[in-house]
Amino acid sequence: MLRQAHLKLIAGHSVRHGVRGGAGLVSILLTMVVGLILANIAIWPLDAVNKTIDKTVERAGDRISDAERVAAHEEVNREVVRVTGKAIDWLIEPSQDQLDYLTKDKPAFVSAILVLLFLATPLFSCLGGFNQTSGDIATRGLRFLLIRTERPNIFIGRFIGTYLFAALVNLLLFAVLAAYLAAKVKVHPSGDMVLWMLQGYLRLMLFSLPYIAICAWVSCAIESSFGSLVIALMLTYLLPIFIGRGEAIEEKVGYLQFLTPWGFKYWLLQPATSGYFWGGVLAMLGFTAVFLVLGLRYFEKRDL
Amino acid sequence: MTAPAVSIKNVTKTFGKQRAVDDVSFDIPVGSVFGLLGPNGAGKTTLFSCMANFLKPASGSIEVLGINVNRIGDLCGKLTILPQDALFQANVPVREQLEFFARLNGMTQEAAAAETTRVLTMVGLMEAQKKNARALSHGMTKRLGIAQAFMGTPEVIVLDEPTAGLDPVNAAAVRELIKDIKQKARATLIISSHNLAEIQELCAAVAILNNGKLVECRSVAELTQATGFVRMTFGRKLKDTEVATIKGQPGVGTVDGDTQNEYAIELKLAAGQTTDQLVGALVSELAKAGLVPRSVKEGASLEEKFLEATRQN
């Protein structure tokens, strides 16, 4: 029986002590480092070109007018948007509608960063979610809770706590990125970029749901924190890689991606009015429900 | 008739092919202090774990206070346990962990704080309340375990080897704590221990497990046979000839010695003879032979009965 009060207590305790054992700390650190590195892949070339222009202008002195300098930057920005569009096209092979949405309706530069962050979202989710119960099963620390509440409260409470913890960590990453983009990147209006970052954050958190649910399932099945991290990462990344390899041989194999959340990830970067977007939302919620039910069934029956 | 505090019916628990608990059934009366005994690997901790719903039995059922332990949520706050080898969260302060448990037991924030203060004071851990669990010594961790088991007003308290690994001073302190709590709490206490003297001191009834099977379940008085045996303690271990001297005395049956200079002597009363008369005559005769017992206790020791029960099976 699920009890709201117990869920709230367990989730709150889980968030407060998300850094227990150092795993949470590692998760924060790696999410920040990997997230910033990925964002830097998009930001660095733009920064480099702008710096080169600034140096050239400085050397030229009065020979280049302010208007010419602004025009040069604008030209670079246009080129950046064009190249970014090409990169997005190459990375996710979108429909023309989606490409227009990501590169024309929304700030293309931010879209490129979101596309890269989506690739790493399962990794962030696994890092934050692998130790939901496995460590406490191994130390038998869970036994202090088992006589005070029903198992579903522990399982779902820890899942909610882990998800909130991951949401906070990702919020920190997005806040740093948004602040940087607003202050330094003048390719698009700052307001548009921050708003799209915020929407992107919400979409990314939706994408991370099924992966944290997979971790909840794996974590309750394996009595080793490290083991559950390895298994969760293998399920998360090896499966899509194998399917991707298969797709290179036989195109139809690619449809197997839709048996995992990975296949639907870029549906979430469609316009909010499109059927794809809501299909993506339903897929994420559906996968989450399936993984949670499977995990919960196992957790309820197993010896602890 | 009062319903038992714990009713164990035909419980079997297997790990692979091994039967850790094999068709065990017994009841534990309400308000009693009950001991669960058995050699290592006998199935005591497994049975306790089934009782607390940590482990799922392969067959059989366990009811605590008339509630099947599968519905453990209905026993929240009524059943508590000191698990044998469970670890507290290493990086969380002691007070916070206990307050969290108290909140799960249904207490408000204020009540949980007050209850935590009460149990920490009870086990002498108030000074360590802000320390992380990893900073506690083994003895302190054990006391913390006892503190969480006595939070609130539990009706059934299971203590799995509460003094294991403690030095004699700490073990005695924990025993006194249990006695003290028992006097105040009126709860049913179920204790397992390898220290049989401790069980004999604390418990009114015991069950003995061996190889997963129940081999005895009786009151301590019945088990140690209050009549028909005396235990004499001598100042040293007796030589075989001296044991033979005891055996040769009138009214003496078997004589079994153990390592603590204590000898269990079976009494065979003659017609019309009382135990007092026979024991008085025996002590007098032994004194003449230079064998002066330091103490004489009626009944067999629990240890002896335990060894007898586990050897037979």
Describe the secondary structure blueprint for this structure:
The complex is a heterodimer of chains A (304) and B (313).
Chain A: H1 4-16, H2 23-60, H3 66-92, H4 96-105, H5 108-129, H6 134-138, H7 143-146, H8 151-184, H9 190-221, H10 225-249, H11 275-301
Helix pairs in contact in A: 1-8, 2-3, 2-5, 2-8, 3-5, 4-5, 5-8, 5-9, 5-10, 8-9, 8-11, 9-10, 9-11
Chain B: E1 6-15, E2 18-28, E3 33-37, H1 44-51, E4 59-64, E5 67-68, E6 79-82, H2 94-104, H3 109-122, H4 138-149, E7 156-160, H5 168-185, E8 188-192, H6 196-202, E9 205-210, E10 213-219, H7 220-223, E11 229-233, H8 240-247, E12 252-257, E13 262-267, H9 275-288, E14 295-298, H10 302-312
Helix pairs in contact in B: 2-3
Task: Describe the model.
The complex is a heterodimer of chains A (304) and B (313). Chain A is mainly alpha-helical. Helices cover 78% and strands 0% of the residues of chain A. The longest helix of chain A has 38 residues, at 23-60. Chain A is elongated. Chain B folds into two domains: 6-218, P-loop containing nucleotide triphosphate hydrolases (Rossmann fold); 225-311, Alpha-Beta Plaits (2-Layer Sandwich), CATH 3.30.70. Chain B has helices spanning 44-51, 94-104, 109-122, 138-149, 168-185, 196-202, 220-223, 240-247, 275-288, 302-312, and strands spanning 6-15, 18-28, 33-37, 59-64, 67-68, 79-82, 156-160, 188-192, 205-210, 213-219, 229-233, 252-257, 262-267, 295-298. Chain B has a six-stranded mixed β-sheet with strand order 6-7-8-3-9-10, with helices on both faces. Chain B is elongated and about 70 Å long. The model of chain B has no long low-confidence stretch (mean pLDDT 88). Chain A binds chain B through residues 1, 3, 6, 9-10, 13, 17, 19-21, 136, 139-150, 301-304, and chain B through 49, 52-56, 72-73, 75-77, 79-81, 83, 85-92, 97, 100-101, 103-105, 148.
